[in-house]
Amino acid sequence: MSIIEPPTLEAYVVNDTHIIVPCPFHRGKKYHIHGSSGRLLNCKTHRSSHCVPGAYPKGYYIKVTDRTERAYIGKSNQILKRGYQELQDLYAEQLSTNN
Ligand SMILES: [Zn+2]
Questions:
Q1: Would you give the DSSP letter of residue 84?
Q2: Which residues surround ligand 1, an ion (CB under 5 A)?
Q3: What separation in Å is there between the alpha carbon of 99 and the centre of ligand 1?
Q4: Spacing, Cα 57 to ligand 1 middle (Å)
Q5: Domain map of the chain by residue range?
Q6: How many angstroms is it from 98 CA to the middle of ligand 1?
Q7: How far is the CA of 40 from the centre of ligand 1 (A)?
Q8: Residue 32: helix, strand or coil by DSSP?
Q9: Cα(81) to centroid of ligand 1, in Å?
Q10: For the whole model, what pTM was predicted?
Q11: pLDDT at 17
């Protein structure tokens, strides 16, 4: 992976406020948190880096996929039951109105 061209990072979770991505630059699963604008659908979006200065000079792409959990996470980055069903419902609603 080049650190000059923007890499693509797959999101761990997305919810109504945040997209949370594991950073391969940081060993040991450090996550960077970006805004989701309430959008839970799969997407690929370019963002400025939230990593250490110089790690991603051109930012990175964040990819939200079918593997991305629609969920909130706790302090240990675990998927929470709280709000989980509500997010599945919201996701289904966005999918149904996407076309
Ligand atoms: Zn990082």
A1: H
A2: 23, 25-26, 51
A3: 35
A4: 12
A5: 8-98
A6: 32
A7: 23
A8: strand
A9: 27
A10: 0.90
A11: 98
User: pLDDT tens-digit profile of 5-49?
Assistant: 899 999 999 999 999 999 999 988 899 999 999 999 999 999 999
Q: Are 48 and 99 in contact (CB under 8 A)?
A: no
| Separation of CA 94 and ligand 1 centre (Å) | 30
* Cβ neighbours of residue 30 closer than 8 Å, sequence gap 6 or more: 22, 23
Tokens of 32: 């960077």
Could you report the per-residue pLDDT of 39-95, keeping only the tens digit for each? Answer: 999 999 999 999 999 999 999 999 999 999 999 999 999 999 999 999 999 999 999
Q: What is the layout of strands, in order, in the sheet containing 30-35? A: 30-35, 18-23, 13-14, 69-70
* Ligand 1 geometric centre to CA of 87 (Å): 27
Q: Ligand 1 centroid to 90 CA: how many Å?
A: 29
**H or E, element range at 70:** strand 69-70
Neighbours of 84 (CB within 10 A): 15
> Number of helices and strands (H, E) in the chain?
1, 7
